[in-house]
Design brief:
This protein has 297 residues and is α+β, with helices and mostly antiparallel strands. It contains nine helices and twelve strands. Strands 7, 8, 9, 10, 11 and 12 form a six-stranded antiparallel β-sheet that branches. The longest helix is centred in the middle third of the chain and has 18 residues. The protein is elongated. The two termini are 48 Å apart.
């Protein structure tokens, strides 16, 4: 772009009533200077020009912070804690108002008695992070004998394969069903502060980057915006007459987890999966984690 073209093709017709952005190439220092002096945003590359246009078009006025909520019960639960296992993490989520799956902790196979229905069985250890990969998660196990056998197997495998790991027992929970699974996360980012994230959950969380995030804490309107921003969740809102999911309960769960922003000690938290049931039947957290760091806003 030659400097004269800025005057002829842009400044001669530009009246300032609409925003304008210009990409100048190849090495158009003078054209960039003239545009800048005229108050026109000018860029050296198409990528930066496109990024600026996107930022301008998606800008929203700063939102009013949601009203403060009482998180004293949750604060009491994390006080003095150095680490949480999955069971403790889900107990914290329940304190925030998120339904969690009822779970039994057993430390020996003979403790398995009278457990009805198919169950999910999982080793409980804060030192073994990827239990599925280690073969320490089993789904759809039914009957006391079968469950006790899995408990025996998991305790022996963990002791043999992870001799230095702390083994706290085995979790047994009734299998949960629903229409979809999401991952709901919280993080205290060192640059921008606390954020809450929503995306497709279960095994899809690692295969598909379909998620959205907002500054935490959020209100219900923002939570609904997050749900609308995940394309796959359209199927739960009457898409092509598919069964409707309880997206209202999902929005409340997003708000609840985002309130971890009010607990400076909590660094990261995640529910995966959070199962969305049919409309009117809520959501339920099946698994989760919580990590602590230095107290900071």
């Amino acid at each position: 772009l030659r400097p004269g073209q800025v005057n002829e093709n842009i400044l001669s017709v530009y009246d300032g009533s609409k925003p304008i952005a210009v990409f100048c190439a190849p090495q158009a220092d003078e054209a960039l200077r003239i545009s800048d002096d005229a108050g026109i945003a000018a860029f050296r590359s198409p990528e930066t020009c496109a990024d600026a246009l996107h930022a301008y078009l998606t800008w929203r006025a700063p939102r009013v912070a949601p009203p403060a909520v009482d998180v004293s019960a949750a604060a009491a639960r994390v006080a003095g804690a150095e680490a949480f296992d999955e069971m403790q993490a889900c107990a914290l989520f329940a304190t925030l108002g998120i339904e969690v799956a009822q779970t039994l902790l057993v430390t020996a196979p003979e403790q398995v008695r009278g457990i009805a229905g198919p169950c999910a069985v999982k080793l409980l250890s804060p030192d073994i992070l990827h239990k599925t990969d280690a073969g320490l998660v089993r789904l759809h196990v039914e009957g006391d004998a079968a469950i006790a056998g899995v408990v025996t197997e998991f305790l022996a495998t963990a002791t043999r394969t992870f001799p230095n790991a702390r083994i706290r027992g085995v979790l047994v929970a009734a299998m949960q069903t629903g229409l979809a699974e999401v991952i709901l996360g919280f993080r205290r980012d060192p640059e921008i502060g606390p954020v809450v994230m929503l995306g497709m959950g279960g095994v899809l969380a690692e295969l598909r980057a379909s998620n959205t995030l907002r500054i935490a804490p959020v209100d219900l309107d923002t939570a609904r915006d997050m749900i609308a921003a995940v394309p796959e969740l359209r199927m739960l809102q009457g898409f092509r007459n598919l069964p409707r999911g309880d997206v209202t309960a999902l929005a409340h769960a997003i708000v609840a987890l985002s309130n971890l922003a009010l607990l400076p000690k909590v660094q990261d938290a995640e529910i995966n999966p959070l199962i969305i049931r049919p409309e009117g039947h809520g959501v339920v957290a099946v698994d989760g984690l919580v990590a602590f760091g230095e107290d900071r806003p």
